[in-house]
Structure formats: C-alpha cells, structure tokens
Amino acid sequence: MVEVKRLTIGEVAQRAGVATSALRFYEDQGLIRSERTDVGHRRYPAEVLRRVSFIRTAQRVGLRLDDIRSALASLPDERTPTAKDWERLAASWRPRLDDQIALLIRLRDQLDECIGCGCLSLDSCGLWNPDDAAAALGNGARYLLSDERPPDAGRAP
Fold first, then answer.
1. Confidence of residue 156 (pLDDT cuts 50, 70, 90)
2. Which is higher by pLDDT, 124 or 24?
3. What's the mean pLDDT when you consider all of the chain?
4. Which of 36, 88, 91, 131 has a Cα-to-Cα distance from 72 of 20 to 30 A?
5. Which strands sit side by side in the sheet containing 35-36, from one edge to the other?
6. pLDDT tops 70 at residue 12
7. Residue 147, Cα to own-chain centre: how many angstroms?
8. Distance CA 63, CA 59 (A)
9. How far is residue 157's CA from residue 143's CA, in Å, rounded to a whole number?
10. Measured between alpha carbons, how far is 66 from 120 in angstroms, rounded to an integer?
11. 113-118: which pairs have CB atoms within 8 A and are 24 or more residues apart?
C-alpha cells in the first residue's frame, strides 16, 4: 500500500503562499480538510495545494466564499477541481464576472465625476443628484449600479 504524503500546516502555507490563519479559516469554512495527528496537529494531503489555489483564484476574481463553497461541494467525493471542472465552473460564473467587469468600467469612467450618488450629501448634490433624485431608485450608489441618471443630472442647479 502506498502512503500518501501529508503536509504540515506550515508546509501548505509556504507552498500555497497563504498564512496559516487562512488555512485554518478555510478549514473552519469547510473548504479544505485536514487529518489530525495523535497530538492534534493538522496534516493535509498534498492535493490540498490545488484546492487552496482554486479557492484563492476564485477569491481574486471576486467570488464570495458561498460561491466557492457551492462550487467545491458540486465536485464528486469532495475532490480537488480538475481542468474540466474549472472550465465548467468558470463558464457558470462568466455572467457574474461580466457584470462585475461592467461595474468596474463604470466606476473607472465615473471616478473623476462622482461616486455614483451613493454619497451622503442627499439633496445638496447639484451635480448628479439634485433634489435627491437617486433616492427614488433605491439605496446605495444607484447611478454607478447602472440606473439611468435623470435627464437634468450634471447641469448646474
């Protein structure tokens, strides 16, 4: 019988480029698993490195832990994602990522004008939100979140 190489938490952290606290957090969140030695030290199978890389990549593209947890739970036998798995998951996330990219582009393009009327000036902003017109559209930075600006927005009050 072939013995599977087990890594310490420090070895995984160093190889994956994450803090040991991140590994403990991922484990608490059910994203990775370890085995415990007789004295309670964590030991990870070597394939956890690919799983941690998957988690970090998904986080870097803006996915929430709930999304990542669901993706990992969709894998048979809680295995590490393969290239085929990643392709399937990436395709399912594409619309969300496209929306996020569009939001970032709007933010970039409007950054020198305003924060998209999520400001707290309420009715005193004569530039984009005269008479607090954005309040009727909902909470937060409404214009940034793609709502149309009123026809007179940006004109001097």
1. very low
2. 24
3. 78
4. 36
5. 6-8, 42-45, 35-36
6. yes
7. 23
8. 5
9. 18
10. 31
11. 113/154, 114/143, 115/141, 115/144, 116/141, 116/142, 116/143, 116/144, 116/145, 117/141, 117/142, 117/143, 117/144, 118/142, 118/144
